[in-house]
Amino acid sequence: YVLYQPYPPIYHMLKSHPAAQIHQMLQKFPEISQAVDSNGRIPLHHATASTSVCDRTVDLLSEANRIGVSRVDPVTGLYPFMLASTSRINDDVGITFKLLVADPSLVGGALDSEGKKRKRSASMDDKEE
């Protein structure tokens, strides 16, 4: 989706409005959680990349757009959980964990088919030396 009028300007509201207002807006216009800006970013990308957007707003956006948690930010090349882990101003990893749990397949490459940790390759050992 592309964000056009008559939808509220969600990208501008993310940083300046409390989560309760964002929640009301998502209830009235649920499709805005999937709106794409001119750079191909969705509101969840903006929210997780920002240090001024509260975790509750990020949580609301991820609930409204479940597919969005698996969508790479075209600007940074990072998934929302990665953006959240680098931009959160506190040490709480709660929102990063919630985003990751929403799509655990994003880190599935670290486990083998039986769910066990993969052994390190010789090439990884060489890089550390």
The radius of gyration computed from the alpha-carbon positions, rounded to a whole number of angstroms, is: 17 Å
Distance between the termini: 48 Å
Mean pLDDT: 78
Poorly predicted parts? 1-7, 123-129
SSE class:
mainly alpha
Q: Biggest sheet, in brief?
A: none
Number of strands: 0
Instruction: Indicate the percent of residues in helices.
Output: 40-55%
Protein architecture, described:
The protein is built from seven helices and no strands. The protein is globular. The relative contact order is 0.11. The protein has helices at residues 10-16, 19-28, 43-49, 55-64, 80-87, 94-102, 122-128. It is an all-alpha fold and 129 residues long.
Question: Would you spell out the secondary-structure blueprint of this structure?
Answer:
Layout: H1 10-16, H2 19-28, H3 43-49, H4 55-64, H5 80-87, H6 94-102, H7 122-128
Helix pairs in contact: 2-4, 3-4, 3-5, 5-6
